[in-house]
Amino acid sequence: MKIDNDFNIDAIGDDHIGSASDTPLRKDAFKLSNSEKIESIKADVQHILETLGLDLNDDSLKGTPNRVAKMFVNEIFGGLHPDKKPSASTFENKYKYGEMLVEKNITVYSTCEHHLLPIVGKAHIAYISNGSVVGLSKMNRIVDYYAKRPQVQERLTIQIVKELQEVLGTEDVACVIDAKHLCVNSRGIRDVASSTVTSEFGGKFKTKETRREFLDYIKLDTEF
Ligand SMILES: [Zn+2]
Questions:
Q1: What Å distances lie between residue 133 and 138, 157, 183, CA to CA?
Q2: Structural element, H or E, at residue 49
Q3: Is residue 161 part of a domain?
Q4: In what helix (H) or strand (E) does residue 164 lie, and over which residues does it extend?
Q5: If residue 101 lies in a helix (H) or strand (E), which one and from where to where?
Q6: Number of domains in the chain
Q7: Is residue 176 a contact partner of residue 199, using CB atoms and an 8 Å limit?
Q8: Given 103, 114, 124, 165, which residue is catalytic?
């Protein structure tokens, strides 16, 4: 797509048009250490706040550039760094459990890459074992790793499925995400009620019955 002026760039942001399934990282993405990145971003955040006219000598504001820089690098965008990728350990499916396993209501905290505002929601994941299984918390960790990046929800959904397919050695993986985008809820169109649902169905989940079964499970109202 050719982008030739600022108007188009804005339009792409509000339309949330995604690109490839891989996060668009530059080749030199990890040339700087995390502490070098924090120092650089700190100066940038300070510049933004000062440009807005804020007095950074104020007690309440003076720690903000450092706080935001650390949060970007170590927390909300920490999943850009391959070192943070959850280990790929699996276990043998000793029980010979042959049905689908569903983990639902996994909390998603991510950041919209078009506005740098939060995406908050739930992910539901299912797989059918091909001989190996993963620990349940591994699925939460995979969701969290890919969520901690500037994201578009479609890409996040695909990245989670691809990762689990690779770890488990099977195509039979599915993911549904239902999330609120603060860029839609709190600004722009300001629709507080709307949420966005994305799904990716691999292997057996492409068939109607298997997909139906998964979607029925995630509708179950679990209360403890
Ligand atoms: Zn957005």
A1: 10, 20, 37
A2: helix 34-51
A3: yes
A4: helix 153-168
A5: strand 100-112
A6: 2
A7: yes
A8: 114
pLDDT digits (tens, 9 = 90+) for 104-120: 999 999 999 999 999 99
- What average pLDDT does this structure show over 93-105? 89
Question: Could you confirm whether 115 is annotated as catalytic?
Answer: yes
110 C-alpha vs ligand 1 centroid, how far in Å? 11
Q: Does one domain contain both 167 and 63?
A: no
Average pLDDT, integer, range 186-194: 90
pTM of the complete model: 0.90
> How far apart are the CA of 147 and the centre of ligand 1, in A?
14
Q: Region 167-174: what's the mean pLDDT?
A: 96
What domain range includes position 139? 90-218
Q: What is the mean pLDDT of residues 89-112?
A: 92
Handedness of CA 186, 191, 195, 198 (dihedral sign): negative
Residue numbers in the known binding site for Zn(2+) are 112, 115, 183
Which listed residue (46, 103, 124, 153) is catalytic? 153
Segment 39-52, tens digit of pLDDT: 999 999 999 999 99
Q: Give the tokens for residue 182.
A: 């603060």
Tell me the DSSP string of 64-91. HHHHHHHIIIIIITGGGSGGGSPP---E
Same domain, 130 and 191: yes
Tokens at 134, concatenated: 């993963």
CA of 204 relative to ligand 1 center, distance in Å: 32
